[in-house]
RNA sequence: GGGGACGUGGCGGAAUUGGCAUACGCAUCAGCUUUAGGAGCUGACGCCCGCAAGGGCUUGUGGGUUCAACUCCCACCGUCCCCACCA
């Protein structure tokens, strides 16, 4: 008998599988498909570790099982190879990332093959392959075309060590997800993907994923963070005088007289289009007089002609506020140049340079702009000037706004319009630039009568915009500075005592009570959520209460607590009541219940809205080793996408990769690459030098697997239709609010574009628990507790490694590494080997009934366990089975011939109960998904001709599972008194009679009357006395 | 502070429409075999009392429902994960 040589047989079968291409998945096969996916790895220099093994082995067991069950299975793999480690290594060693990546891929692939994983290697992909990232770039451009990829300057998370911006999802406890450095805030120009536009769909979609664990769904739900409430504007009034002398001519300005409004539309506009009807009615509802003339020659307007027209037809005085939208702003400026004196001028997206981002000619506008402006006169004739520009404008550049701001010496307000160029039907930003107000989001509009003060976040533009009116500007500025620093510190360790400073000189009006209330700046209000401002209701909000107590702000109770709450809350010190109740001190709403008042009051004072915690996805990184963002910046045309025919935009091969730390990518220093001709106008332009985040390539990779070689599209729709959605996706819990959310977003978007065939990418998600080091700590190189799986492959073999890993515990549980039981699994496989090699049993004509019974039970158990991913109990079941059929048995030894008996006794070789080849084969099929190499080898040994992969999964016979007799537990009052062996299916009368004969039962029932008998067939009988 | 998962021998763990708690494996002990080591084989192995027969206790703690609770309900204690001043 040969010894079980794992090295030899594993190498042999791995070669057979490769050369026979045993695991190739066939497109459009007649069989039903199963798409089984594991998260593709980042090929690091350290190789694959136990953390990779777990989902891969689980996926492999599942794939091999499903192939034998008659499915066309695709089980693909690839490499998520862009990212920081390769780049950091390149910086340190001077080796190009593409070289280290190729080496690491080679090594990791070798490991995977050594584990016997049944991947379809013909579908292997690599995110750093230009043939792959061409399509990542192409997909990015689809987002851009639909306005879901945009460029904006904002305060973003910045890792000072990796010198790159980070997405919200990549910041864990205020630290960089990659390197653990405390993240800073930095103002940077960034690309964003507008994932917030899909917040509702991402949330809705979760409802149609019944096979996702609720923990995963809940975590995504919390991350998206929907809350329903109301948006309410609080008008802001400023004291009548500028407190700070900001220029020579500053004069005290009376503001008590009511303003009137003149609205001038732009080119191709009319007072009946876009935002104008809405603005007009909003202003008129507040009791203001509004003029909104239809200008002459709107197609190709002439600024002088239109100014003359306004002078002739409109009334203007020192209380007039002129609002000029786009070209209307140019006309307004002409009016002031001609000596019209007004109260306030508001320019909304008004052109200055005469150049446009979309590069379309607008000769009349350009001509008007080229004349220039007399800013000195304009400043003299308008007491106040406001500037509002749209960050998503694709016609009028932001630099025009900056030019106005510089020449007029007034702050520029940058805001995002509902539509680009503030051309939506309602544009609240425009309205608030005309009459300043602070917009708040609240989930409790029913408490508005209790709003006794307001708080804005330190970043709130109202502060900068009303700089000149704020009396205690130094204090305010000092506070803003200190809170900026605070956010860089580890705030969790500090007590969260609230601090703030009142903005003196400005007041807000509570729209419900009409009272003046103070406005504070405090960093307990976050700029990143809602509107960055709150109405503070100290009586009914814990944070507002704490703040009000500290700064002695007034507290108005507007909710009557329910009786039962009042009874138990005799709290000292007093606490705010935050629950619902009945309104009081709330004017006409007094007496209503919170739930009824909320929608009514939301409508009365503002409008019902929904807020999400989800932020837009910061999609650019200032690093080398990533997909270049396929965009060109042209001084004439602005942002120009790289034409599809020019994709991919390849990463240049360079010697220096160091991040600059300036917020520019290292690519910016490569002149030859950066300088290009604009694809539209052919003038000198520059490439976008930021690269995409690591999550880009993985946001669509499962689609590429369906059609990995396609040169014409990212994946043929017919092939997608056959393979997608993914049936089971194995992966880590840590990706729940990263990759898993991002890729759902991409898929939902592409589905809306008709580019993918299934709405959701993954039908079932199967997360796995992490494997801790032997010390119970998370495995990491720095702790030195990393376990290399290759050691076990070498010492005990891949089959042992696989089964051992599965045997550690339930797939979802976190487990500490403990390699002591490796030998237990190896012993088991040795015994399987030995059992098979006792040839006389292999040659049996019949299978022993005990074996047959055990085998059919095993078929049932393994089938059910794989389907429910309970791999650990499968391994137990195999061991129990072998124990049943393979043991030293005196009776068995006696039945042998004398010489055999002698051998048997002398070597104490355990002997097996008889089993036929046919049944033994069934056992090998069951074992095959778990220990494929040894199963193949043993099957061949007993005469098998083809790979087990082509065999059919066995069915179990219900009749063979039923035991002839069963043990029945006899209880009195639920306490065990004895046991009985009876025929399976025995009735109560028979069992009861036998049970009452038991000595222990007889004794216990002396002087007792059985009141009731509980009988569970084949299980127990319980006498209640 | 909010949300979620969980708590069973010396250890990893098994058992859920409520029905023999501790399967399977590791470790430990004893026996056989072996020149030895190892491997293999056989057996014991939750805790307490007892020479034994036997008895009592036991699934984080306390209560409840039930003929019967690891399993269901309530309260508490503890561990882990996620989010965290989210208006």
Tally of separate helices: 37
Name the helicity range.
25-40%
The low-confidence runs, each spanning 5 or more residues with pLDDT under 50, are: 240-256, 490-494, 889-910
Determine the mean pLDDT.
88
Globular, elongated, flat, extended or rod-shaped: what is the shape? Answer: globular
Oligomer: single chain
Instruction: Let me know the number of strands.
Output: 37
Could you characterize the architecture of this molecule?
The structure is a single chain. 42% of the residues are buried. The chain has 37 helices and 37 strands. With 1025 residues, it is an alpha/beta fold. It binds one RNA strand of 87 nucleotides through α7, β17, β21, α17 and β33.
Summarize this entry quickly.
The protein has 1025 residues and is an alpha/beta fold. Helices cover 36% and strands 18% of the residues.
């Amino acid at each position: 008998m040969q010894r079980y040589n794992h090295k030899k047989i594993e190498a042999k079968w791995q070669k057979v599988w490769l050369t026979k291409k045993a695991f190739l998945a066939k497109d459009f096969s007649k069989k039903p498909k199963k798409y089984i996916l594991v998260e593709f790895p980042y090929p690091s220099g350290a190789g694959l570790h136990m953390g990779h093994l777990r989902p891969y082995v689980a996926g492999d067991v599942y794939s091999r099982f499903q192939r034998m069950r008659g499915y066309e299975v695709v089980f693909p793999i690839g490499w998520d190879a862009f990212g920081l480690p390769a780049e950091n290594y390149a910086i340190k060693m001077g080796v190009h990332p593409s070289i280290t990546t190729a080496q690491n891929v080679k090594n990791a692939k070798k490991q995977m093959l050594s584990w016997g994983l049944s991947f379809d290697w013909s579908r292997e992909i690599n995110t750093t392959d230009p043939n792959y990232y061409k399509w990542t770039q192409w997909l990015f451009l689809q987002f851009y075309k639909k306005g879901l990829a945009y460029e904006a300057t904002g305060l973003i998370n910045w890792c000072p060590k990796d010198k790159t911006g980070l997405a919200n999802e990549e910041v864990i406890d205020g630290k960089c997800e990659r390197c653990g450095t405390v993240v800073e805030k930095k103002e940077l120009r960034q690309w964003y993907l507008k994932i917030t536009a899909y917040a509702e769909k991402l949330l809705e979609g979760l409802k149609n994923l019944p096979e996702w664990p609720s923990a995963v769904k809940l975590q995504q739900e919390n991350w998206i963070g929907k809350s329903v409430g109301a948006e309410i504007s609080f008008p802001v009034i400023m004291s009548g005088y500028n407190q700070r002398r900001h220029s020579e001519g500053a004069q005290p300005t009376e503001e008590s007289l009511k303003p009137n409004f003149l609205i001038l539309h732009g080119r191709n506009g009319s007072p009946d289009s876009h935002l104008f009807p809405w603005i007009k009615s909003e202003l008129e509802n507040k009791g203001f007089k509004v003029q909104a003339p239809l200008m002459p020659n709107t197609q190709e307007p002439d600024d002088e002609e239109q100014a003359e027209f306004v002078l002739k037809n409109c009334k203007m005085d020192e209380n007039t506020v002129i609002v000029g939208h786009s070209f209307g702003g140019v006309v307004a400026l002409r009016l002031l140049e001609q000596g019209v004196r007004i109260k306030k001028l508001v320019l909304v997206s008004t052109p200055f340079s005469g150049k446009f981002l979309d590069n379309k000619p607008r000769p009349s506008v350009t001509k008007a702009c080229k004349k220039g402006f007399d800013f000195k006169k304009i400043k003299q004739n308008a007491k106040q000037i406001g500037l509002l520009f749209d960050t998503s404008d694709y016609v009028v550049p932001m630099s025009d706004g900056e030019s106005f701001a510089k020449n007029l010496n007034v702050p520029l307000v940058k805001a995002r319009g509902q539509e680009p160029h503030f051309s939506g039907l309602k544009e609240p930003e425009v309205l608030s630039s005309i009459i300043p107000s602070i917009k708040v989001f609240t989930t409790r509009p029913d408490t508005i009568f209790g709003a006794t003060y307001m708080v804005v976040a330190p970043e709130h533009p109202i502060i900068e915009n009303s700089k000149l009116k704020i009396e205690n500007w130094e204090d305010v500025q000092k506070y803003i500075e200190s809170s900026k620093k605070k956010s860089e510190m580890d705030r969790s360790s500090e007590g969260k005592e609230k601090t703030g400073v009142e903005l003196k000189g400005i007041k807000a009006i509570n729209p419900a009570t009409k009272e003046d209330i103070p406005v504070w700046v405090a960093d307990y209000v976050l700029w990143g959520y809602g509107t960055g401002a709150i109405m503070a209701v100290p009586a009914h909000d814990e944070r507002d209460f704490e703040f009000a107590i500290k700064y002695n702000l007034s507290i108005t109770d507007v909710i009557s607590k329910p009786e039962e709450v009042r009874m138990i809350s005799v709290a000292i010190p007093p606490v705010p009541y935050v629950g619902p109740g009945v309104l009081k001190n709330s004017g006409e709403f007094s007496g209503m219940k919170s739930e009824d008042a909320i929608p009514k009051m939301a409508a009365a004072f503002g409008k019902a809205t929904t807020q999400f915690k989800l932020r837009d996805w910061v999609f650019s990184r200032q690093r080398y080793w990533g997909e270049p963002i396929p965009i060109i910046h042209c001084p004439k045309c602005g942002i120009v996408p790289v034409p599809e025919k020019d994709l991919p935009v390849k990463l240049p091969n360079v010697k220096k990769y160091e991040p600059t730390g300036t917020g520019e990518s290292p690519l910016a220093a490569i002149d030859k690459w950066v300088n290009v001709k604009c694809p539209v106008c052919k003038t000198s332009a520059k490439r976008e030098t930021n690269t995409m985040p690591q999550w880009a390539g993985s946001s669509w990779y499962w689609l590429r697997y369906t059609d990995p070689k396609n040169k014409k599209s990212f994946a043929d729709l017919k092939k997608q239709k056959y393979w997608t959605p993914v049936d089971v996706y194995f992966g880590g819990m840590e990706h729940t609010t990263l990759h898993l959310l991002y890729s759902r977003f991409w898929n939902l978007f592409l589905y809306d574009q008709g580019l993918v065939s299934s709405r959701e990418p993954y039908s079932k998600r199967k997360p796995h628990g992490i494997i801790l080091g032997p010390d119970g700590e998370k495995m990491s190189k720095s702790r030195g507790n990393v376990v290399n799986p290759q050691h076990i492959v070498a010492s005990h073999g891949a089959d042992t490694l696989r089964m051992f890993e599965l045997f550690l515990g339930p797939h979802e549980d976190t487990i500490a590494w403990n390699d002591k039981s490796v030998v237990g699994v190896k012993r088991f496989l040795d015994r399987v080997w030995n059992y098979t090699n006792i040839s006389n049993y292999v040659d049996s004509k019949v299978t022993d009934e005990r074996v047959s019974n055990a085998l059919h039970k095993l078929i049932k158990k393994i089938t059910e366990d794989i389907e429910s991913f309970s791999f650990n109990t499968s391994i137990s079941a195999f061991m129990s089975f072998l124990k049943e059929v393979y043991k030293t048995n005196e009776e068995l030894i006696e039945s042998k011939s004398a010489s055999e008996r002698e051998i048997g006794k002398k070597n104490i070789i355990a002997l097996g109960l008889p089993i036929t080849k046919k049944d033994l084969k069934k056992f090998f099929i069951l074992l095959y998904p778990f220990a494929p190499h040894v199963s193949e080898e043993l099957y061949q040994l007993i005469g098998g001709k083809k790979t087990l992969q082509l065999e059919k999964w066995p069915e179990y016979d219900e009749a063979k599972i039923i035991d002839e007799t069963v043990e029945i537990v006899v209880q009195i009052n639920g306490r065990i008194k004895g046991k009985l062996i009876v025929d399976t299916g025995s009735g109560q009368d028979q069992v009861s009679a036998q049970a009452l004969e038991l000595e222990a039962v007889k004794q216990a029932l002396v002087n007792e009357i059985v009141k009731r008998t509980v009988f569970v067939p084949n299980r127990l009988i319980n006498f209640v006395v």
